[in-house]
TrEMBL record:
Keywords: NAD, Oxidoreductase. It holds the Pfam family Aldedh. PROSITE patterns: ALDEHYDE_DEHYDR_GLU. This is aldehyde dehydrogenase (NAD(+)). The active site is at E259. It comes from Aeromicrobium marinum DSM 15272. Belongs to the aldehyde dehydrogenase family. It comes from the Bacteria.
Amino acid sequence: MTMTDIAEQARAVLGRLGVADPFDPDGDLVCRSPIDGHEIGRLVSHRPTEVSAAVDRAVVAFEQWRQVPAPVRGRFVRELGELLREHRDDLGTLVTIEAGKIVSEGRGEVQEMIDICDLAVGLSRQLHGLTIATERPGHRMMEQWHPLGVVGVISAFNFPVAVWSWNAALAFVCGDAVVWKPSEKTLLTALACQALAEEAGRRAGAPEGLSAVVLGAREVGEALVDDPRVPLVSATGSTRMGRQVAPRVAARLGRTLLELGGNNAAIVAPSADLDLAVRGIVFSAVGTAGQRCTSLRRVIVHESVKDDLLTRLAAAYESLPIGSPLDPATLVGPLVDEQAWAAFDAAITQATADGGVLVTGGRQAAVDGGGSYVEPAIVDMPDQTEIVRTETFAPLVYVLTYDTLEEAIALHNGVAQGLSSSIFTLDVREAETFLSAVGSDCGIANVNIGPSGAEIGGAFGGEKDTGGGRESGSDAWRNYMRRVTNTVNYSTDLPLAQGVEFA
Ligand code: NAD
């Protein structure tokens, strides 16, 4: 078999990122690029004993690392951030090759890694607890946050590198070790991140084994999930995966941080700035070919502006450049694989059977050289049927119509998932109602921007079937530490709490 240009490019980039030739022609894991669907090479899965050995090494590394002062741990993450800056374009290109993201989004994903490293370095001097008033004289009560242990990270294909960094950058400054099982669809980017983490570790004097990658499918993830030496499993992927992982970790009383599927909506109110709404909707629904957990899947539009909005959206959709994500002019790259195309096609068939009307798109797009490229689709639905309540991981948006804001919010919240949401309105009452306790039930709620494209400063995650986890900014670092409450008696007496007498 002759190697395609894309495979050659992937191998060259891997070399520049410090990954020694990882391929084995007899390997069971096939690395493919969604750009042309061709094989880049094969890798060998780790056996459960190898996963266990990686955890052994991580435990040893953790035992050293937890004794290093947090601001000194921050130097390791600073080195990682510097290496990511240096290699941003190469790693971004690898994301493009392996996940099919357009160049700008591939680089943007690496920028997000750099941003979380910056945030984590700052945090390394801010891992603070509280001092709490005590009822006992001559006593002091406080809380401390200590390193937790080995963090298992399981990640999805669509953010092949950023999800690891959201977890790892915080975990490292918090004093933890990380064992990462990336998606079996994006193994090369994971190897590249690991090479950069190892180099950062050498520069900063971090212990070996602090960062590890284990490769394979579900069974390899399960080995991490079931290992009692892994106190926290942070798992990003489908709700189906979360339902499998959560009870297994709970059975051994471990913790999970779950970042699962979304079914994100935008309400478009009568007062909306429609130009802004169209731009926000198109980016959110079509960016990353609809393969973000925060991608827009439902537009809930007021009946008075529906026709105008649909006319503008259809025009915008029909002018979208679809093609190889390596071409800088492309805005819509490929779906990850043929199954994703089949799911997109089946969802449109079901939606139209339910009475939906295909407004635009929905077909395979003609792009030379293989890969699963589609014309992003809009389906105007009479109701929020089961298919609308299901996450289809593709550029497919359903349009629902409303009359009152209460009705819009009920439709909005009438799905099992609760990740991200938005409203386009210039009416402050509507905006504030949407953000209030009786508004959106999601972990992320926006006004006059779409639901996708979060920054790392805020906590990221969602409710209900999205799993309830929060990663990235705000106080998400607390997930990676254990809290200890301390009471210190500096008196000569021994008063008991609640007035208890024991003498
Ligand atoms: P997926 O669920 O198929 O796989 C995700 C990861 O879980 C992979 O590494 C996979 O090998 C592993 N896995 C699957 N079953 C497992 C099990 N039983 N035990 C241990 N590991 C297991 O998801 P995907 O197709 O890669 O990604 C798309 C999905 O991820 C979408 O639903 C999307 O919304 C979601 N996602 C969510 C977020 C978020 O932050 N909420 C971010 C990205 C993607």
